[in-house]
Amino acid sequence: xxxxxxxxxxxLQQELRLWRKAFVEKYDETNLEEIDCHEKSNRTSGAAKMxxxxxxxxxxxxxxxxxxxxxxxxxxxxxxxxxxxxxKKLIPTLENLPDSTVLVLAESTTPDKRTSLFxxxxxxxxxxxxxxxxxxxxxxxxxxxxEKNKGQMDSRTAAYLIQAVGNDxxxxxxxxxxxxxxxxxxxxxxxxxxxxxxxxxxxxxxTMTDQLAKNDVAGVLKTMRRLQNQGQEAPYLFAxxxxxxxxxxxxxxLAEQRTPQNAIASKMxxxxxVVKTTLGQCRNFSHSQLKRALRKLLEVDRRLKTGGxxxxxxxxxxxLLAIERILLSH
Length: 330
Fold this sequence. Notes:
Layout: E1 2-5, H1 9-27, E2 32-36, H2 46-62, E3 71-76, H3 78-81, H4 84-88, H5 91-95, E4 101-107, H6 116-124, E5 126-129, H7 135-148, H8 155-165, H9 169-183, H10 190-196, H11 201-213, H12 217-229, H13 234-256, H14 261-268, H15 272-282, H16 287-305, H17 316-328
Parallel strand pairs: 1-4, 1-5, 2-3, 3-4
């Protein structure tokens, strides 16, 4: 019995693919069964559906192999989709697992470690933990992914891509594959990333804040209008802008305490390259300017939550103008 879980759903799915491939090559796919607990049934209530999943898993693991000596049963996200009392009902089945059944329980998030089922698996199963790489480890992950796609990328370019895309491994893998094909055995460069990669909303907010720091009013308005035209709603833009000013304020305070950049990255759980570039932004603002901008943003947030601003569709334009005034009055 194998228990796989963690936030790195990309690597976990890759591991499951390897398990399937190896098993089918040796035992044939007739003895492979997968149960995805996220699958929905319109005719079954939630409690009944979970009860049927327990029964389905029990039947799958107790079945004898067909013309073989092994069966592989993969169960996806049972813990994530079931309550503790339902999970507990599966334990007797696991305690009587036939030697002919190889059971893999895979969770694409970190389950509640307080439940009886988790404790049972933690004690009795072979564990595989899939944690998302961070910082320098994430850069190395991107570089290795480029090499697997017959591409070349240095750490600076990897960090630049991470800044543009974020830490979504699925999107990073897709973008690396696209860049490697475009580069045609040449080194992937930041210019190629600018040309081919659709940046994340976080990168757009970073760009807008950078424009603001340089007093590029036209650039700020252009970026904001582009985001609006892409369908980003004002409340979400507001939340992301507020987040960026909060990050800058915290980072500037740590820097003024002479905290090393690596320590700032670790403390704030931010990639070292992002720390370096954001500190560059911070130098264009005084501590009081950052506090004043954040205070204004939080005041808008308070007015939204107390009904001081009513965000109906026809007021979207006025709301965006209010955000612009706050940003441009720093």
